[in-house]
Structures are given as structure tokens and as C-alpha cells.
Amino acid sequence: MTAEKAAEKNTEMTAPRTRSTAKRFLRDLSRQRARLWLVVGLLACHCVFYVLAPAQSAIVVNLIWEEAKGCIAAGRAFALTDALTMQLGILTSYYVIQWATYYVSAYLMASVAETLTLSFRERIAAKLNRLPLAFFDRHKAGEVLARVTADLDRISEAMQTGLFQLMMALGYIVGVLWAMLYYSPPLTCVFLGCMGVCLLIVQAVSKRTFAAAERRQETLADLTGLVEECYAGRNVIRAFNHEGATIASVGRDVTDNCEAQRRTDFLTNCMNPLMRTLTRIALALIALACGVQMLTGQMSVGVAQAFFQYVNIGAEPLCQAAFMVNNLQGALASAKRTYELLDEPEETPDPVPCLPAPAGPGRVAFESVRFGYDPATPLMEDVSFVAEPGQKVAIVGPTGAGKTTLINLLMRFYDVQGGRICLDGTPTESMARADLRDTMGMVLQDTWLFGGTVAENIAYGCPGASREQVESAAKAACVDHFIRTLAHGYDTVLDNEGSALSQGQRQLLTIARVILRDPQVIILDEATSSVDTRTEAAIGRAMDRLMHGRTSFVIAHRLSTIRDADLILYMEHGTIVEQGTHESLLAADGKYAALYNSQFA
Ligand SMILES: Nc1ncnc2c1ncn2[C@@H]1O[C@H](COP(=O)(O)OP(=O)(O)OP(=O)(O)O)[C@@H](O)[C@H]1O
């Protein structure tokens, strides 16, 4: 299949999609039907007075013409007659009404557009919270960001320009045709002939514009995703001297976006000169006919100039048609991408009614759990173990063994595909996710701090906590002393996710956050390798305090810290291949013993 045929097929396939997107978009828009009807009413009023103004100007011009001819014949000076003054007053009032109705309707349209954008943003924000983590595994942050920013901005812009102008253009054309038919039906037919040709061209081009605009938004999302990735990985890029390759790949995405933008702009701009030429031909023909009718006395000077004004008013929307169509097609392409995000399959909803999360004591049981990120290729086939209340469970194994996955399932970031996980005898899938997560506290390697004060960051899981509670959590996490050395102590604002803090300091703050939350079950991803020995000792003490009296899961990277664990799970290829205490596993002389001996022998 040639490239042109493929493009043709693509264009044919986009037509039904465009229609269904347009229908859905109109449904969303109709939620503000009262304000929209007001806009339509005001615009109709604006168009009526816009179209009446040339007719009124014909009366004024004819009066001036008659008065001027009378003055020349009588040899007197030109003076404003009462009739002329009154007609001039009426003409001025038409212009004032036109202006006022235009501005009020434009203001209302802007508010309709912004309210719609706001509702899309709210729906997307709520949706992002309901999407499973698998969605975020598949999509780059920048790509999602582009839908929330660039796509929604385009919809808003198109409504305020494209849709608004389209409604106004339709009003002008209807009014102008009515006025033209009143003055001269034959000349109106000339104008209608030109308009028909223009509309055929617009229709042919608009079919292609949707596909072009969709491609433009896609390339923009790819570019945003890549730039976001490069920004986040800037240190690694420099460390590996990959600046050149990175610039080249950004360059490729920029070129793709530029190409898509160029095609969309070309489709818009190529039509304008063509439309102008066609309308100029219509104007020339009409001017010729008006001249002949004036010379034969069939048309007055005032009517001729009014007719000319009507042709201009009617021609302008035709010249702008490509712009309006492009604008609206671009908005539809953006709306389609927004709906795609809103239609993404969500996490399975919490059961109704759901069981309350047990208040304690924190017994966790995995019962024949089966799971795979891709259900077709299971990672875990039959994972079972029990963590008794207050026990420390260490999870060890080579990289990619499934340690993090086990935690992801416990937190219900992903749902199990077989078997079940119970907390104090209650299956976790029978509880609301929020209730389950309330019982758990996580300290990850990937510490996350947000732009706010140190105190706010510690109180993230308990927004109502008092300053005393925050400070005592910080003391328990061995980070109080460090916080007091900061410029504003607990009120120091952390910028850029706390990037000015060291990895160890960030981890101590996240430990304080979990201590304050006081959960039943603790999950620790041990990450002490990147900190100095003093900080490591402080983190170790803080973690011990955190785990004291609570069921805890520790993803251990160094076996020295887990000799005292009540249960050690040794994992490989998603399966627990050995479980027991340190002593029993050493005695069994299996894989754990081999790993331990490789580290300490
Ligand atoms: N979001 C994901 N989507 C698809 N596959 C994943 C995802 N996360 C992990 N995996 C795969 O699942 C397997 C287990 O990964 P997991 O992160 O649980 O290992 P791990 O034992 O925690 O490794 P490490 O010690 O390196 O952190 C790996 O093969 C990994 O490639």
C-alpha cells in the first residue's frame, strides 16, 4: 500500500471517531447549556445588529446623497437635517449594541471554556487516583502531563476562538444572505455560487486536519515525555557522557513534532489565499453588476455600498473557515486523547460493603498467592507464609527475585490473581484499599519529600498532628538534632523534593513520617549502602525503634542486619524457595546458607 493510500485510509477511519468524539464533547458542553444559550442569544443579537448596520448605513448614505444633491442645486451649505440626525443616531446605537453584545458573549464563552477545562482537569485528577499502577508502568509522566496541560489548553483555546467564531460566522452568513436576497436575488446567487465552491474545499481539507492535529498532539506528548525523562535523569546522562545521544533523540522528537505541526499549519494556511481569491472574484463580479444597475437607475448609491459591505461580511468567515476548522479539529483531537485517558480501565473498585480493617494485632498471611504483572506470564505461582504479630520478616534473594512485588501485593498496589492475603484473618481484597493502607507504613529506598516545611513533610500521614507529636517522632527517628541545625528548624521549606538534603537525611525524615503515623505493619526497604557509617547507625536505630512491637517486613540487601529476624524468606524467580530463622536456614545449608557464606565466609 502506498503512503498516500495509507493516509487516505487513515483519513476515512478517523471520520466515525471524530463524530463520536464530537458527540461526547457536545454532551459535556451541554452541562453548561444555560450559559451557552445566553452566548447564542447574545451572538444572535450581535449578528442581527451587525447585519442591520449596513442597511441603516444605506439609509444614511442615501439621505446624505440627496441632501448633497439638493445643496449643490440650491447653492446652499450642507447641513444636518432632523431626519439625517435621527438616522445617524440609530446607526450609532446599532454599533453600540453590536459592540456590547460581542464583548459580553466573548466573556461568557471564555467562562464556559474555562469551566469545561476545569471539569476535565478535576475528572482527570480523580481518574489518575483510580488508575492501577500498571497504567503508570505503561505511560511516561510527561505523556500524561501533556494531556492535562497542552491538550486541555487547546480545547479551551478552540472554544474561545474556533467555536465562538464559528457560531458568529454562521450568524453573519444567515443574516447577510437574508439582507442580500432582500436587495438583489441575482447578485446573491453569484455570491452563493462562490460560497458553495469554498465549502467543498473546506470539507475536503477538514477531513485531513483531524488526523494531522492528532499526530501533532501525539508528537508533543512524546516530546514532553522525553524531556521529562531527560530532566529527571540529568545526572546519569552526564555521568555516562550521553549528552550528545540525548540531544540527538530530543532532536528527533522535536523534528517529528515540527513536521506534524508544519503539516497541520500548511492545511490551515494553504486555504486562506484560495478563499481570498475566490471571494475577490465574487466581489469583482458583484461590483460590475452593481455598477451596471446604478447606471441604469435600478440601484441607489446607498444600497450599492450596503451590498458591498454584505459581501465583505459574508466573505470574511469563508476566508477564516480553514482556521476555524483547524482549530476545532485540533480541539477534537485533543478531546479524543483526553477521553482516552478518562476511559482507561480503573482499579477494581473496593467491595461494597467492605470489611473494616482489623485493629490488630497485625498477623499477615499469604495463602497460595499467584500473580504476574502480565497475567499471561505469572511471576508468582504459589506463595504462602505467615508473619505472626510483632514478628520481623526479612525478605532476601537475588535481584529480580520478586521481593518488591511481594510488598506491592501486600499494599494492594497490584491485585493478586489467585490465592489471597489476609490481615488478622480478613482478606485484604474485602477491605477498602485506603483502610488497608492506613494500617501500613512504608519506608522506601526511593524517599519522596514534597515542597513544604520539614514539619509538614513529617506530618504527611497525620495532617492533624501537633508540633510536639512531630518533634517526638523526629526524635525517635534520630533526626531532631539535624532538623534544629536547619535555618528555620521544623519550618524550613524543602524545595524541589528536598534535593538539598542527603540521602540519609531524607530517609530519616521518611522514617519519622512513618513513626508519627504509628501503623500496625511496617515495610522497610533497607537502603543503607549510600550513607556514611554514622548515618547508617542512626538509620538502624531509628528503624529498630520503628519496628519494635510491630509486624515488620524488611527487604534486606545486607544479611548482617537480619540475623535476628523471626522469619527469613529466601526468594528466587518470584517463589519463596526457603523460609525459616537464620539458624534453621544455615543448618539446612541451602541457598540462603550459600548466600550468607558468600558474604561472611
Ligand atoms: N511494574 C512492573 N511491570 C512488569 N514487570 C515488573 C514490574 N516490576 C517488576 N517487574 C518484574 O518482576 C520481577 C520481580 O521484580 P521485583 O522488583 O519484585 O524484584 P526485586 O526482588 O525487588 O529486585 P531488586 O532486589 O532488584 O529490587 C522482575 O523480573 C521484574 O523485571
The distinct ligands, each listed once, are: adenosine-5'-triphosphate
User: Can you name the CATH architecture of the largest domain?
Assistant: Up-down Bundle
- As a percent range, the share of helical residues equals 55-70%
CATH topology of the largest domain: ABC transporter transmembrane region fold
- Fraction of residues in β-strands: 5-15%
The top level CATH class name of the largest domain: Mainly Alpha
Total beta-strand segments: 12
Subcellular location: Cell membrane
Organism: Kribbibacterium absianum
Domain ABC transporter: 364-598
Main location: membrane
Task: Describe what this molecule looks like in 3D.
With 601 residues, the protein is α/β, with parallel strands linked by helices. It has helices spanning 3-29, 33-74, 82-130, 133-138, 141-183, 185-232, 234-239, 243-269, 271-295, 301-342, 403-410, 433-438, 454-458, 467-476, 480-484, 503-517, 533-547, 582-588, 591-600, and strands at 364-371, 380-387, 392-396, 418-423, 426-427, 440-443, 452-453, 493-494, 521-525, 551-555, 567-572, 575-580. The protein has 3 domains: 30-342, ABC transporter type 1, transmembrane domain (ABC transporter transmembrane region fold, Up-down Bundle); 364-439 and 519-600, P-loop containing nucleotide triphosphate hydrolases (Rossmann fold); 450-513, no CATH class. Strands 6-9-10-3-11-12 form a 6-stranded mixed sheet, with helices on both faces. β1 (364-371) and β2 (380-387) form a beta hairpin. α6 (185-232) packs antiparallel against α9, α14 (467-476) packs across α16 (503-517) and α16 (503-517) packs parallel to α17 (533-547). The longest helix has 49 residues, at 82-130. Residues 1-13 have low confidence and may be disordered. The site of adenosine-5'-triphosphate has 11 residues, from α11. Residues 137, 373, 379, 397, 399-405 line the site of adenosine-5'-triphosphate.
